[in-house]
C-alpha cells in the first residue's frame, strides 16, 4: 500500500451552497439534530456552520450571479426523483430509529424512495433537502 501524501487527513466538513441558508439550516437541524456553531464572518457572503457529532456542514450563501441550477436538480429538472439517488450524489446518515424517521419524513410530505438489500439487513431511504441535495438515511436491520 502506497503512503498517502496528506498525513493525518480526516474529513473536515461538507459544504452546501444555497440562496436561503437559514431555510436549509432549519431543515438539517429539524431532521438530523444538527446544532448551529460559531462561524466566521467572510464579509462578502453569509455562512451558517452546523455540527453533529464529528460531522460539520457549512452552508454558504449562493452567489446571486451564478447561472448553475441550485442543487443537483432544479425545479425545472426531470430528475427530482429520489429513486435516482441510490447510485448518485448524496450524503448518508445512519440512525437508530429508522422506521420512525421514515414516518416523520412522509408526514412532512417529503418524497422518499425506500429500499432494503436482499438479505434484509440494510434498509435505506433516499430523499432531497429543500435545495435538491441528495440525502440517504441508512440503518442496519436487527439480526434475525
From TrEMBL:
Domain VOC: 10-140
Pfam families in UniProt: Glyoxalase (PF00903)
Coiled coil: none
Protein name, as recorded: VOC domain-containing protein
Species name: Carya illinoinensis (Pecan)
Amino acid at each position: 500500500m502506497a503512503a498517502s501524501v496528506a498525513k493525518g487527513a480526516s474529513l473536515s466538513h461538507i459544504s452546501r451552497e444555497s440562496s436561503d441558508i437559514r431555510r436549509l439550516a432549519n431543515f438539517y437541524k429539524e431532521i438530523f439534530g444538527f446544532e448551529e456553531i460559531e462561524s466566521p464572518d467572510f464579509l462578502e457572503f453569509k455562512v451558517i456552520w452546523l455540527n453533529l457529532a464529528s460531522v460539520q456542514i457549512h452552508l454558504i450563501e449562493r452567489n446571486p450571479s451564478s447561472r448553475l441550477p441550485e442543487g443537483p436538480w432544479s425545479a425545472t429538472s426531470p430528475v427530482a426523483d429520489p429513486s435516482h439517488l441510490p447510485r448518485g450524489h448524496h450524503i448518508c446518515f445512519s440512525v437508530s430509529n429508522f422506521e420512525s424517521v421514515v414516518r416523520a419524513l412522509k408526514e412532512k410530505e417529503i418524497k422518499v424512495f425506500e429500499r432494503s438489500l436482499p438479505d434484509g439487513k440494510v434498509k435505506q431511504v433516499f430523499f432531497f433537502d429543500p435545495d435538491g441535495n441528495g440525502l440517504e438515511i441508512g440503518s442496519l436491520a436487527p439480526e434475525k
